[in-house]
Amino acid sequence: DENHPSLAKNTVFEVFYPGKIFKENEKSALDTLTSDLFKLVKTYLIQRDRERCETETTQAIPLLRFYRKSGLDERYTQLVKTTRKIIDSQKRLTADLFYERFCFEEEINIFQTLNNTYEDDTNIERMLRSLDLFFMISKLSHSMLLSVQKLHSAEVKYEMNDLHQAALKMAREGYSDDVAIARLLVIALGIFEELPQLDNLKTFNSAIIESKNELLFSDYKYIQTVNRAFWGLKFMQTATEYIKSEVFEIYKKHLDEDLFYHDGKLPMVTLNSLTNIGLSFKAFDWVKKLLTDHPVERLIGTKYLSEGYHLNWAEYYLALREHDK
């Protein structure tokens, strides 16, 4: 608790500098110490994030750069072969992975350019293909999210341009048939163009299940977010009991699969939606467990977490007609 009395500036000063007089509103040695500590914390957070995101490919790049600058060609060539084997064995292909490959191939391009004539292969083709796939997947992924957002906000003015059409054309013509997330994005964008039809939604859901083992969890989470958006649109079109029931089953399944969480916490807006749809089906035990399992400490997304959390409990007791609670 940053407001705890023991963390007051004068109290901390007395701990670090016993016997010295603390002067309010004057810069002291404690301020310098605090600034230095903040720099260390910032360095630690940057390094921790970097290490968390590192892969064998990204680890190889600075080592290759060192070998190139040191003239250690044999070690350079051996590390390239080893890293290529790792790359060739990768099954769950993502946009970030192709960007890593681009950076890897770019380093090899520099090496080849310095060590070969213009007639020789300088690795440009591999480099460009990796860049193409990174761009294509990233463009389609964000275009999909934009399309969903435009349904809910008149403020979105961005229009799909020629780059979007070029990326979509590449994907539809099979440039990335071996990349599961790209295949699913093509299906999703096709559904969106026609507005969700029940058969298309079932086909899309089946395609996601079939491709699950080819997706990283982050991509699986993303594509299931798109899937939920489609079912939500379908519910807005035709609010039948069948569609409503399907939406509820999808939400329950995705909660069990941890697809709603961000940094281990559940967004308040998601808790509201889950509570409301659960109560609409009179799934009181399920809603009670949902709220019990997600106290304020496990929520995120608003300054008013406690108020929002207790409002959901109020909705629960209101549905039970237990007004005294």
Secondary structure layout plus pairing:
Elements: H1 9-16, H2 29-53, H3 56-70, H4 73-89, H5 95-115, H6 124-152, H7 162-172, H8 180-194, H9 198-211, H10 217-237, H11 241-256, E1 266-267, H12 268-280, H13 284-293, E2 299-300, H14 305-319
Parallel strand pairs: 1-2
Helix pairs in contact: 3-4, 3-5, 5-6, 6-7, 6-8, 8-9, 8-10, 9-10, 10-11, 12-13, 12-14, 13-14
Structure, described:
- By secondary structure, the chain is mainly alpha-helical.
- The chain has 14 helices and 2 strands.
- It has helices spanning 9-16, 29-53, 56-70, 73-89, 95-115, 124-152, 162-172, 180-194, 198-211, 217-237, 241-256, 268-280, 284-293, 305-319, and strands at 266-267, 299-300.
- 20% of the residues are buried.
Please give a quick description of this structure:
With 325 residues, the protein is mainly α. It contains 14 helices and two strands. A two-stranded parallel sheet has the order 1-2.
